[in-house]
Amino acid sequence: MSTATTSPATSPAAIPATRLLLRAGLLTLLALGGTFLLDPYRNYQLATAAGIFAAVAGLTLLVGLTGQLSLGHAVLMAAGGYGYALTATRVADALAGSGAADGVAGLLLPLLAGVVGALVASGALGVLLGLAAARLRGPYLAGLTLALVIALPSVAGTVPALAGAQGVSAPFVPVPDALAALIAVEQWHAWLAILLTSCAVTPLVALRSGRAGLRMRAVHDDETAARLAGIDPGRVKAGAFVASALAAGLGGAVLAVVTQQVSPGAYGLGFSLLLVVAAVVGGLGSLGGAAVGAVLVTLLPWLVDQATGALPADLGHRLQGNLEIALFGVVVIVVMVLRPGGLARLVRGRSRNTSLSTNTER
Amino acid sequence: MRSTTSRATPRGRTGAAAVLGLTAATALSACSTPAAADVPGVTDDTVVIGTHQPLTGPAAAGFASISAATAAYFEYVNDRGGINGRQIEYVVKDDGYNPATTQTVVRELVQQEEVFAIVNGLGTPTHSGVLDYLDQNGVPDLFVASGSLTWDQPEEYPNTFGFNADYVTEGAALAQYALDTDPDAVVCVLGQDDDFGEGILQGVELVADEVAVNETYSTADQDVTAQLGAMKEAGCTHNVLGTINGFTALAVGTAAQMGWFPAWHVSSSGADHPTLVEYLGEDGAPALEGLVSVNYLPHSPSSDWYELFTRINDEYNDGAPYTGNTTYGMSVGYQFAEALAAAGQDPTRESIVAALESGELRGNGVAPLTYSADDHFAYRTVRVAVVSDGVQDFVDAAYEVSESGATAVTPQETPLENEGVPAG
């Protein structure tokens, strides 16, 4: 995590830090327990939603708190995914020769190395983008990040290690023997996804509620005033971008663990815009809203698919792939008309609308 | 004080969201704990199987008609009592040729639809992403619609079987035919930048001493002008193409615009004449004259299978235009029906794999199937087809390819029996 934003944040948040960790731990346990209620396919959907949640959480913080619009978070996820897949594969191959491939070490080492790889890859890209973000504002940053998404397939096709449209595969993480009788592969992957996602989101919560969050809001509200108060807007913006990129990178790693593959097709323009939709519908700046938005963008295409399946084949085929895009547009419009603060407000009611409006309703 | 309240809010909201999510989840709940069950997808009177196909997206134009043909063949079989008294239910999911979507729809097929097997999942980039998943879940992964060598790894993926003649076989046969017809041929290769193109190139290198130029394209490309320019410059006389239909048409059309008419030797995955004519239009069609391709399926008007499939196509597929995809799709259907019939009165996932590995299945191709315990490819023999006066038909040449190269053989088509419905 960027030192510029985290280190000052820890001191004032020292007392609630234990409470924060406790809450994060409780919620994680609750989610882990929840997987027992789901069938394998829904656990797979849950794991996917968790990965998307990590990325949307980073994005919603970036857009909601500092006002930087990134349309390219899919690329940061892809960077995390590629980082995970390439590192984990290397480590798994190296272990396979050494005889340590079996047992817990053989299971965890590739996974952990892969996560580090994901953080390094997405962090590096995040730093580059953050440097640009410190100098660009509004539509220019959006344009830059948009260009990255469009360039992804070409980059994947040009760099041999990324293996073009076919993508690279990530090693499969099997269920540990001790748990094999208890849970299925999908549930195990959902667990991993939940754990990784909580590692991505909890620091964001700390950032948001700590001093760094205040700085971000200050920069968002009035850069000149922030500068007068001794805040360097460039550093704050770049730091926010890196934090957001790391969360997205972990989200990409989650998806790589779950699907064992990373390909540019999975991180196209449509998906990138869906992340923005999830952040907007959930409520900009709200992490709980990000969770709702992530679940929505995971489930809606599936529900549409179920619905079109019931239609006559000819009509169904024509609607497939198109209907969900239209539906997302409708959802955004309806939510914006009825609840401008996003779905998070639906849960919390309207009482706090006024106190947070400066940060979330731009 | 205010900062404390605002600090607590995000957690509160996350909590509320989590509870909401859990409530929704409980409503749809079922347990995830693994349990031993009957054979998935098989009941007393049905067998449910599934596939992933590009029905929308860039690859749809070339391949969407395959699953329709397969479904039509199954309907034909079902009308004649099915296999061992069981009706075959074929669930087709659209993946838009996007590997990420394939991941989702295949899980849907396995976990929601609880299919007995995945049959004819289409595409190398798409299917390689679900290979491990299917293996871990012990789902038979039959007749993958791609010629990548990936499907032939019986040790690692004991349940995966390829359908197409592998790309290396095709590449070797195409190049050998070029050398047999013109010993002075300058052989060049244009291939897709994945396993497909690489396999074709490997095959060409197996038989040709020298590949003058090797160019590649990506399916995201808009044109292949640069590649063809380089090939023309190098004086290629015979171009071996590892291209899908759309890019075969693009290559032939672009060369014709350059006023260049070399010999085209095209993989079966991209040499379907009616489809190519559709791409090029009637004006561009003459450029396809003399186009050489190879095939392992009975796609020839002189074949009994072709005649039967044409009838099924008229009756069960609303008389859709008959193309190579129709022969392909129906052959997939026939091959599955034959394997299912051989898997016994009460088929299990193990027994259908055992039936395939027994080596007793014949298929309906230009040579008997080569499946065995250590070979998970269907065809090692391909027959040459040439477009002549606008009709694509077999010539007498056929090649069997092994590691030592391509050998000319006499084709021996499996005869049609019992109206194309395998007996149990």
Could you explain how this protein is built, in words?
The complex is a heterodimer of chains A (362) and B (424). By secondary structure, chain A is mainly alpha-helical. Chain A has one domain (3-267). Chain A is built from 17 helices and two strands. The two termini of chain A are 27 Å apart. The model of chain A is unreliable at 1-15 and 350-362 (pLDDT under 50). Chain B folds into two domains: 46-165 and 299-379, Rossmann fold (3-Layer(aba) Sandwich), CATH 3.40.50; 167-295, Response regulator (Rossmann fold, 3-Layer(aba) Sandwich), CATH 3.40.50.2300. Chain B contains 13 helices and 13 strands. Chain B has helices spanning 2-27, 60-79, 99-112, 124-128, 131-136, 167-181, 195-207, 225-233, 245-257, 273-284, 304-316, 324-342, 349-357; strands at residues 46-53, 87-94, 117-119, 141-144, 160-162, 187-192, 214-217, 238-242, 263-266, 292-295, 381-388, 391-402, 405-409. The longest helix of chain B has 26 residues, at 2-27. The radius of gyration of chain B is 24 Å and the shape is globular. Mean pLDDT of chain B is 87; it is low at 1-13 and 15-31. Classes of the chains: A mainly alpha (362), B alpha/beta (424). At the A-B interface, helix 2, helix 3, helix 6, helix 8 and helix 13 of A face helix 1, helix 3, helix 4 and helix 5 of B.
Largest sheet of chain A: 2 strands, antiparallel
Shape of chain B: globular
Largest interface: A-B, 67 and 56 residues
Order of H and E elements of chain A = HHHHHHEHHHHHEHHHHHH
Distance between the termini of chain B: 79 Å
Radius of gyration of chain B: 24 Å
**How much of the sequence of chain B is in beta strands?**
15-25%
Regions with little confidence, pLDDT below 50 for 5+ residues of chain B: 1-13, 15-31
Helix content range of chain A: over 70%
Strand runs of chain B, count: 13
Q: Which structural class fits the helix and strand makeup of chain A? A: mainly alpha
Shape of chain A: globular
What percentage of the residues of chain A does DSSP assign to strands (E)? under 5%
Main β-sheet of chain B: number of strands, strand sense, barrel status? 8 strands, mixed
List segments of chain A where confidence is low: pLDDT < 50 over at least 5 consecutive residues. 1-15, 350-362
